[in-house]
Specification:
- This protein has 404 residues and is of the alpha+beta class.
- The protein is built from 17 helices and 9 strands.
- Strand 7 and strand 8 form a beta hairpin.
- Helix 14 packs across helix 15.
- The radius of gyration is 24 Å and the shape is globular.
- The chain binds calcium ion.
Length: 404
């Protein structure tokens, strides 16, 4: 843009910018250009991207060095900026009631507005509209969130100097394919700083696989079409194995006699067997008859210090969208609240806030004791929780499967 400005203005601007831009701006431009020519362009041509597309899209492209988490060209250089001082958020904060109360009314009115379309999407993909709406809410506030970045520039920068260069090289090729196919203009192809595009927050490779044109205008528009957004989310879940006749899970009372160390999708049994062991729904209703013979598993995102759930395999399909128990539970719970807007019955008991570094150290200690925590990454998943519980039981305590 600046190239088109009159020269007097350029020199004035340059003088002003000298004081405002960091001294390193543009430092990587030449190296980035070489990276595009030697690593991206040949791979793109092999993948069927035309020279015309490459010329148009890569011309003038520069890395956006302001993106978070960059490490340097080739994924080497400065140490990764993983913040092990970051707070480990307690689930109580993640599940604040005010958030749900803010999202429920808009979701309900969108369901009304799109009732006919949602019925057609449900029929085609077998995913309940309330689950689709809840993911849409979580990803982009039903499209209200600002998604400001040029997607191609983001994935190209991540490929050049991010922490997962090889992964993002594939995303650059996918982004170029999308632009070549003409579903969206470069100017409209916006993403988050991590390259997640549009209202359902699809990476370019996911877009190619799962985005659909459901409003019939010939374009797969996940940026400004509510209908394409909802159908694309449904298509993603259905392709990841959504079981059409099942719910995501149920909040339950888990008797003390059922150990929290039995949590996890690798410990599934028939829901009727849980009922036999004294597990009941907090709503007081029985489990739906068609679920009783189907498998479920214990889910305790806060160990014994939070609400308990029996999750179905669909809970783990939601996790395919975003690999986090709290994310999937947020989605399932919000989906339930479009019906009757009720909070969890169990409470998230206050816990000492800790850091990812402290969690990682605990995980290493548990690994040293022979437990499988699923990798010492500073994040607490079910393998970490039940390892804590097993260690508590081994030492003669009632297992809580939670830190502290
Ligand atoms: Ca469309």
């Amino acid at each position: 843009m600046i190239r088109r400005l009159p020269s007097l203005l350029i020199s004035t601007l340059a003088a002003v910018m000298m004081f405002h831009l960091p001294a390193q701006a543009g430092k990587y431009d030449a190296q980035f250009r070489q990276f595009l020519n030697s690593e991206i362009a040949p791979a793109a041509r092999k993948a069927g991207i035309s020279q015309a597309t490459l010329d148009r899209e890569l011309k003038g492209l520069s890395p956006d060095t302001s993106l978070p988490g960059l490490v340097g060209p080739g994924g080497k250089g400065a140490p990764p900026k993983i913040n092990f001082q970051a707070e480990f958020k307690s689930p109580a904060r993640y599940f604040r009631d005010s958030q749900f109360n803010a999202l429920v009314p808009r979701g309900r009115s969108l369901m009304k507005k799109h009732a006919g379309t949602i019925r057609r999407i449900e029929a085609q993909y077998g995913v309940p509209g309330r689950i689709i709406l809840a993911i849409w809410a979580r990803e982009s506030g039903y499209g209200g969130a600002k998604i400001p970045h040029d997607a191609l520039r983001v994935v190209a920068t991540q490929a050049f100097m991010g922490q997962r260069p090889d992964f993002f090289k594939g995303e650059v090729i996918a982004a170029l394919k999308i632009l070549q196919n003409g579903d969206v203009s470069r100017r409209a192809m916006k993403s988050s700083w991590g390259g997640a595009m549009g209202q359902p927050q699809f990476l370019p490779s996911s877009y190619l696989k799962y985005a659909v044109d459901f409003d019939g205008d010939g374009k797969r528009n996940i940026w400004t079409s509510d209908v394409d957004t909802m159908a694309s989310i449904a298509h993603y879940l259905s392709e990841h194995g959504w079981a059409r006749d099942r719910d995501w899970g149920y909040e339950v009372h888990l008797p003390d006699s059922v150990s929290c160390t039995r949590e996890g999708p690798d410990n599934r049994q028939k829901i009727s067997d849980f009922v036999r062991e004294g597990v009941t729904r907090v709503s007081g209703k029985p489990f739906p008859a068609h679920e009783l013979n189907r498998p479920g598993n214990i889910l305790l995102p806060g160990g014994r210090y939070g609400p308990a759930f029996i999750a179905t395999e669909n809970f783990y399909v939601i996790k395919d969208y975003n690999e986090s128990d709290t994310y999937a539970l947020f989605v399932g719970h919000l989906a339930d609240r479009y019906g009757s807007n009720k909070a969890f019955v169990g409470t998230w008991k206050p816990m000492k806030e800790t850091t990812r570094g402290a969690v990682r150290n605990l995980q290493r200690r548990l690994e040293g004791l022979g437990h499988d925590v699923g990798g010492a990454d500073g994040l607490i998943g079910f393998k970490t929780r039940r390892s804590i519980g097993k260690d508590q039981e081994k030492n003669g305590f009632f297992a809580t499967c939670w830190v502290g």
